[in-house]
Amino acid sequence: MSAADINKVDNDDDNKTLDKLQIEAEEKEMMLKVEHPADADVELRHDEGPVKTALSGDITEQGREVKPKFIPIGAIKMPGFFTRNSDREKSKEEEAIEKDTDNEKNPDKADDEAKSKQRFQFLQTYPFTKFLKQTPKKNEGENPGQKKRLGIFNVMYPKMFQRRSAGAAEATLASMETLEDKVDTPNDGMETVKLDVADEQDGKVATRLPLKERIRQKKFIIGNCQNYEKNCNWLGLGLASTEDVVWFLTTDDLMVCGVTVLVLLAVIIGIVIGARSGPPLERPLRLGRFITTQTSCGLVEGILDDGVYNFFGIPYATPPVDEKRFTYAHPLNKISMCWNGTLTCHEPAPLCLQFLENGTIVGHEDCLTLDVVTPHVRYDSPLPVVVLIGANTLAGGISPAQPSAMYARTKEVVFVRPNFRLGSFGFLALDILSNSKYPPTSGNYGLSDLIVALQWVQNNIKHFGGDPKSVTLFGHRAGATLTAALTTVLNAHKLYSRVWLSSPSVIFPGTPLQQTQKNNDQFKQISKCHDVDCLRRISPLEVLSATPDTWLGSDVSTLPTSAEIKRSWLVLDGQYLRTHAYERWDALREAKNIGKEKLFKPMVFGTTEHSGHSELLRMKHLNWTAEIVERMVNESYLGEKNLTANVFELFDKSYAGLVELVSAVRTLCPLVSLARMRLRAPLYVALGAGAGGGAAGSGLAPVDSDVEAILGSFDSVMPEQRRFMAAIQQLFYYYVWNGRLPAEHDLIAVGQDALPLRGLPQCDLLIQKDVVPRHAHVD
Question: Which has more pLDDT, 302 or 282?
């Protein structure tokens, strides 16, 4: 070391410890001795330290020469410890010789090592191992003398699991006497401990960067394959030298990554649980049978039966009794109108007062309730809602449109069946009633019941597992006529999504309210009431008895005559029905053409091929002959128009042919005229199950067969009947779920399958001869 280098070292004395300063001072003196021997001899005579004495070559008490011990600058000797093995690194040749000697002594160990090498030999062929062997491309500006690095990084097992090499130093406690015994050995047993910890790479000191920065630079803690030679060879890295640098992950890095992943997973789980928090998906049962849910007027309890939940007789409007008789329905929008506690809805509620077809009177005046049948009482994944509106006539008659427990469960829909007022209680229009209101109006009370019931559905059906945004109105016969009139009420458009009409009438009121009130004066004469108080004071039975017989019955199963009287229960009340239905539908169709589709809801019309069939008509003759059928046609309006011959070119002279003719005149062809000319809506014709598969095996498709097949009450014993049920159910429930039919056709024939109907020549004849829609049936 030159004098300039020594002076440079002196400038750093302030940063050295006292031990370092003393040692370095003695080393400087030795260097000066080499350069100036004369001066050095003088200085070495002074006994100023153990290191100088050792360097001077003095002899110990045992007569042995103490060799100078070299202590590198920046390190100190740790007394009390010695190493078992030599600090000198063995050469590769020595290691090979020792390895061969060990193999000869321990042949089993050599075999195990050979098997171990063979066991991991297959790793050399793996794509990941090949990737690790690749060296990165030389970057621009890279130092040519810099060593090549391996890939991005190599993951090695933590240090705590690493096996120590045979040449690693192992420090043990030793006494001073032991140290003195080993002073003549090449290695004095003192372990060199570095004071400044730093990893060296290519002559540069590398500091440990934060994990985030190392990830960004794709670099990790610097290691050296000298201590991981076996690991590098095991990974199949094929290193040229143990000095090649390996990048590896430490245990701390793995722990940090693991904790980060766990925290992120916990956050994701918390978000998912929070998003799904709220009311329970399925409400609990009481005693395994009873279930409670809420409505806008209080709690109601239903019953589990046949795999579905039934809620019977839920009130949706104020009772139409006493002073509320002959008034429009009023919703339960006040707390005083509601009930306390939980309302039990286990048993079916009574029907509204009405006449059956045989003249029997059933029902109660306080009847504005509805039934709900649902497969689930939950808030997630709401189901489509089907509102069943059925009546054989507007005077009464129990409709087969009843909720089906099996199809609520299998088709995943919620059925709602509201009771509504019929007959005089539901549609009586009189001047004494109109004058009691302002503006003057009366009639269509049953229509107002349906509107309030649909409002209840919008407000409460979500508590029964239903979707208020998917409500299908399913009307049958007189109920379908009411539903068709409901589509013309502008304020009701937001209460439903689509409409399915089975065998409705196409005759709607067109006369003014004043004229209708005059036509109903016969009711005042029979009841002997000339003011509204009298009408509300008499008993329900007296109200029914004051209803004229001509207001009852239906002409759906008879051929038209020129003397028949047509009377409609519906009236242009000015409150709900203000214009004729056809005019309103024309306006809705025009709104659809200009892009206002929201005002025009999807509609499907339909009927059966033998809707004119009835047991009363069949029982008129035990044996229907061709002569009887021909005579009945000649006595009808068709015979008066000399259309008998034209008719029998298209229809048979049999009971089945007569029923087809009645059905075409009263229901089918009027619907074809309405669907084609005005609404341009699809229309289906239910052909039944074919020969021998209709009602009671007659091969006919009566007026109720399509509704019975849709709701599961159809007699399905034969395979043909089951195929008919499957075909029409596919149409209906697809429409309920999707708002359209599976195939867009104007006319559809539903028999064993649902197929396009190419034409209806009988309807072309009846429309051309002005028989249809003039003589369509009236509810």
Answer: 302
